[in-house]
Amino acid sequence: MAELSRRRLLGGGAAVLGVAGIGAAGVGTGLGYAATREPEPTGGRTVAFHGVHQAGIDTEPQAFAAFVALDLRPGLDRRALVGIMKVWAEDGRRLAGGSPALGDTEPELALDPARLTVTVGFGPAVFDVAGLAAQRPEWLRPLPAFSIDRLEERWSGGDLLLQVCADDPVTVSHATRTLSKSVRSLATVRWTQRGFRNAVGTKPTGTTMRNLMGQVDGTVNPAAGSTDFDRQVWNPGTPAWLAGGTSLVLRRIRMELDTWDELDRPARELAVGRDLAAGAPLTGSRERDDPDFAATDVHGIPVIPPESHVARARPRNANEQFLRRGYNYDDPDGAGLLFAAYQADVDAQFVPVQQRLAEHDALNPWITPVGSAVFAVPPGFGPGGYPGDTLFEG
Amino acid sequence: MAELSRRRLLGGGAAVLGVAGIGAAGVGTGLGYAATREPEPTGGRTVAFHGVHQAGIDTEPQAFAAFVALDLRPGLDRRALVGIMKVWAEDGRRLAGGSPALGDTEPELALDPARLTVTVGFGPAVFDVAGLAAQRPEWLRPLPAFSIDRLEERWSGGDLLLQVCADDPVTVSHATRTLSKSVRSLATVRWTQRGFRNAVGTKPTGTTMRNLMGQVDGTVNPAAGSTDFDRQVWNPGTPAWLAGGTSLVLRRIRMELDTWDELDRPARELAVGRDLAAGAPLTGSRERDDPDFAATDVHGIPVIPPESHVARARPRNANEQFLRRGYNYDDPDGAGLLFAAYQADVDAQFVPVQQRLAEHDALNPWITPVGSAVFAVPPGFGPGGYPGDTLFEG
Questions:
Q1: Which of A3, A10, A127, A143 has the greatest CB tally within 10 Å of its CB?
Q2: What is the largest CA-CA distance in chain A?
Q3: What ipTM describes this predicted complex?
């Protein structure tokens, strides 16, 4: 009997049930939705997977993110890359819609998309492997070395990026694992960085996040759908295949919270250039008030110190703007910010700002970049397409 | 001018603002609550901090947890221990109510309690340091070594435990850091283990969690407030100071997901003894159906294999029951379950079940205990009290 049971336990082999069957069973047997008087569960909320742009960039930021960098195994060619992309297109679509991936081994964990988005990016190696070096955007290379950097290999670089965001951490965990696993014969995970914001519902939608130093973080972002957003974020087609795509700069910024805690509140506010309670510039009273960098106090001293973070980060021209869509992290190796910046052109928009901050930023003693990676983010695609189809078939 | 600003930046010293002032400013300057048409934010939800029992045990599980073990610095005495407890009582009460801790360095991060609970536990060393060795419960020692254990020091043991749970990950991060920091001259963090369940709202309240193997996990739990719950969880007063307290066994159980994925669905269900879609026992159709361990198929073979997890875990007597309140984890070192078990008596309730599972459990090839710790959880206390007051002043 024990023998038989063991055979039953281990037998069977590849009899993975049909995906539709599993999904239907998971819903049909009822997780009890109908029986409760609760508000409609939010797990079913979805974000459109197909479109002109990939989702996950102009999407109202979800509560949780995982950034996964993968390295291509040696000896691959363009066809293998396209294979990976088609798998991610198919499984991304399924998961974003609340259906299990093909061959999903934990299909019940796929049933709550919770606004899941899957965003794919390309590191520099993609273009060599594909034999398309001439198509690589000029800015797609490691950022210049900044004096403040203390970069660690384990948080830097990568050939491919998967950005997985959702309002539920179980959804993110399942989707991340499923998408990396399905291509593991072709690519290996180089690093995974997980981040969080406030849970959905904790604060009203649209509240700017706070980082773990307690600062309101991301106030100057352009509004999704605005002309500013489109101009800052979406690549106009340089090179042509990237039209409607963008770039991601991901910086892992460790916060030196123990020494930050030694600063009193006024000193913190002068370092940032904003107050901590409302996130208002020191010359204003509300978060979205424009900072007045010319304002001085009765002694003629600038109210917003020129070396403060907001003063140093202030764009010197219209190019120096980009979208911040970061996440907090709190891991055994420390706490900080996964600073995620999206822009049409890294060199024109991101680098000058970062260069200026590296040279002088009153916040620098308390923030240390320990990871850095740059990716080209191909445009969106339709049901027949996949990430990078304009590159690989262009 | 730069000189002056630098002085303004670095000057000031210890001028931490009054707590009430900061709190009021944070709310008063308006995070925009009133201006929106959204449902009331859920960040303001609170769980009572004082009571007969500590909160965080019979509390409907929050979405996020951090378990922090601390080690006492050498040379402490009972007075120092009481000092730590009084700090945690005061700051725990404030944070659970949505107010900053005393001297909170990031007071704005304290304004959304999101059902925050802070639960304190004692490791074996507490009783020696306090000169109260005779008051140590007999079961408060490392669990017996089990054959399946692959324990790592970095996830095991500890003199004190802080269990911090809330529905928001920022709240958990802030409270965890604040509470450990405020006693760092007396105790150092030994390990931190962070876990998650579904976000609030993803599924209806009361849905049993799924672990990352996809299994419904925790079905057999007693209902909070029931006679079963009270009998299983709350210590009746052995020793007397622990009346209304309990014990926590925290096991970090790594899941071998890559090999688990090689099993087909029927084999998985036979290993667990439940189906995966609904979590129903193989002899039933709904999650809460009682398993029928005597049922056989047409060949006389038990429908629920005797070596399946549910069959091996089944209590052999009324003592062998306890509360499971675990959390998923997904960290760089692997994914799995923070198995948290609460019981009046570890030796009588938890150990025999774990012993039986270690000897034979069809799930064992796919689950590896890599961390283990046992704590006595003192009873609740009133506004004038603190965790362990019945021990230290008893």
A1: A143
A2: 91
A3: 0.89
